[in-house]
Amino acid sequence: MHIEYEEFDSVEDFFMYLASAAPPMKNTIPINSYKEHVMSFIPLSPSTGETYLMLYVKGSLEPGIYEFDVPSKSYKKVDNIERADKVYFISLTPKRNTIADTAIANL
Prior knowledge:
With 107 residues, the protein is of the alpha/beta class. 19% of the residues lie in helices and 42% in strands.
């Protein structure tokens, strides 16, 4: 398995990058908060699973739903997904993530 990396300076910059990919997808994006990193993995070779792009920022988020407003570049934790004009991130804290463990060890 090969991992490429893209590090961001802030959670807001990380969310902005992922929000730019949201229009062709949905306005709800899962992310991981794991071992002091907030991260998302994008398979670069979906058919083989050999190469991933790890987008990350150092830090942590509590598990839950985060509403991100692109124009103001701000986020807040919310109880539910309500607005179509916002992008929502579902932060999960896995007990174990072998891809993340490998990626973090190689940083």
